Every structure is written in structure tokens, then in C-alpha cells.
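Practice problem: predict the structure.
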Amino acid sequence: MAGIYVHIPFCKKACNYCNFHFSISKNYRQIINSILMEIEMNQKKISKNIISTIYIGGGTPSIINEKFINQILTSIRSKYIITNDCEITIEANPDDISKKKLNSWKKFGINRISLGVQSFNDKILKKLNRSHNSNVALNAIEKIKNLFTNYSIDLMFGTPDSNYNTVLDDLKKIKEISPPHVSIYNMTIEENTIIEKQLKKEKISLPDNNIIMNHFDKIQSFMKEIGYYNYEMSSYCKEGFKSKHNSNYWMDKSYIGFGPAAHSYDKNFRYWNISDNDIYINKIKKNEKIFLKEKLSVNNKINEYIMTRIRTSMGIDLEELKKKFEINLYEKRNVEIDRMVKNMLLKKSNKKIRLTNEGKKIVDHITTKIMI
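Answer:
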């Protein structure tokens, strides 16, 4: 089975921390028509597997008219076999949520909402240049809860003006709301973002790394205490509510991406679409190629396995790795692995390698040490 990702590259305004491909223009119709044509054309010729997940992301897909979402889903259904229990997610901002929109999405088959709250602290939301405040977020969540059993709330820590109390307040809100799924990300400073420029000019400051790691420890312990399972670095769920779409990424499933800047993967090649909206539209009109691709070497595939699995609660299965790629990772990296086990960064048992909570804090460093 495979997944489909649709990239809707529109936002009301730029969030200060975001480096995703988006536009604040409103040529929605042109882009949607081009996405529909891309679905029809199937330029990448990726085999049409049965589709078990559809994820409409961005950008901010909730900004566009519901009829466009219906057109996209109708087009996908006409070209692919969709499982009866297909997880269909749409990303949304709190200020876009209305009963009318939610009812329309549900009617069109969407069964999961991923809500970008980021914080329940108005001061932090303002620093991030978000379009909503905490009251708008809470009202949106109430509306969603009345119609959807499966939804996720996105939060961030390590943000400007955040501290132990703001993190704890956000966690208490999660306990009160009790959503089935929560994603909690440590804000990273990406190049060419507004927040990077503000930091360089010393207009804002961030908590230092030791403080951020203390916040991470609190998040881990609090979420566990209130019954959430940390199945991936930033992902917490109640039983039965893992994100199927994101889990497919971590489990090496194929996925097909539509829209500007969307990525695709068929286990042999990685594809990425042009990220310029106007060029994407024009090339689609002319039936010209809209993507680049790279063939994955065996080492690429091994390292991809390591990078994705190490982030999950399942960890790296040494036996599975050996069967798939005829490589004994422990034999090649035993010195590094044993050192990190001794330093309580990794756990090794039943021929699996997993991160400890301390290891999660330096996952990128650990990953580079054990990659091939």
C-alpha cells in the first residue's frame, strides 16, 4: 500500500519560523487546476498502488474553499484504489475552522484534522506571527471535537519568550482537552526565515539549549503520565491513534506527491516537484516535466532506514536490516553503538537499537555516528 501527499502552497501570512514552500497570493484556482492535471498526467509513472493514506498539507490547505478540496479528493479517487479505512488528513489553522468547513470536509471523506496551534500563549503566538490567538484555537478545537474523533494538535517548544511555565501551561491544556494525538516539536532555526534574521539582529532571544532540554524532559514525563505513547520523536498518541500517514514514511512505504514542492518516493527513486508556483503552472499547461529525481543507491536506502527508524519507538531492527540489505550494522558500528549504550544514549536488546530519552536529545548526532 502507498500514501498520497498533496501540497497546497498558500498561507495568509508568513509565520516567522517557517521555511516551507508557500505563497500569500490568492491564485488558488490556477494551482488547484494544475494539481488536478498533475494527478491526471501521472508524469512520474509511479505504479498505482492501493492508497491507504491521503495527506493534504502545506502551506495552509484550510485557507482554500472546500470545493477545491473536494475536487482534489474526487480526482484521486478516480485514478487510484482507496482502501475503505483510508486515513484522510487535512492540515488546518485555528482561524480557518468553521462548522460549515468541518461539515464539508467530513462529507468529502476527510476523517482526520491536524491543527497547527503551536502554543496556547498569546505572547508567544504573536512572536511567531501566527494568525490566531489562544481563544480562537480553543474554540476551533471544540468545533473539531464535536465532529471528528481523530484529530491532532501541533505544539512547539524552544520558542521566543517560552519558559518552563509556558511549556507546562501548554501541557496542562493538552491534559484538559485530551486530544487523541499531539505533535510537539522543538523549534529549529531555519535559514532565510524571519526568526533567523531577528536573532541575528538581537531583536529576539531563545532559551538556551540546557533549558530547552529540561523542557523536553518535562514534556516526555508529563505526556507519559497522562496516558500518551511517544511512538516517534515528536509524536504522542492515545491507543489506536498513531498517524498512519507519517508512520508510513518511517516504515519505508511508497508515497506520491502532488503540487509544487511535493516529494515522492517509490523505494528506488526519490522525486521532488518544482517549488516555484508560476513555473509549476506553466509547465503543467505545456505538459512539460515538473520534477527532478535521484536513484537511490543501496547505501542511500540503508541510511534512509537508519534515519527514519531510529526516530521511532520500534527503533532499528538489526535482523530486518540484515534481511533487506545483507548488512550487519552492529558488526560495522559496534564500537560506536556500544559506547552510546554505555553512555545511556541507546538501548540494545532483542537485536534492536532504540533511543533512550537522553539519546532523543541528540538524535542527529547519534544517527550520523551509525550511518553507513
